[in-house]
Task: inverse folding
């Protein structure tokens, strides 16, 4: 992220929260705040971070990108 108050950072955060609400929160009914926190954390760590494709790394998921970088390092490139 860039410096404080950057409109680009706000757009990224807004996009994440919109996606999170659409794909997860509106589909669930939570009994406690703790259950909601746990579910959101689980969603981010298990799905959003490792599998979601990102345009800034050639539309690869973070897991695929890391694997490619590791293979390039092993090959000495």
Result:
């Amino acid at each position: 992220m860039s410096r404080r108050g950057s409109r680009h950072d706000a757009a990224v955060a807004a996009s994440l929260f919109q996606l999170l609400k659409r794909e997860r929160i509106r589909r669930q009914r939570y009994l406690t705040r703790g259950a909601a926190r746990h579910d959101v954390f689980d969603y981010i760590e298990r799905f959003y971070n490792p599998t979601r494709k990102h345009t800034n790394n050639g539309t690869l998921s973070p897991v695929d990108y890391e694997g490619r970088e590791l293979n390039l390092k092993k090959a000495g490139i």
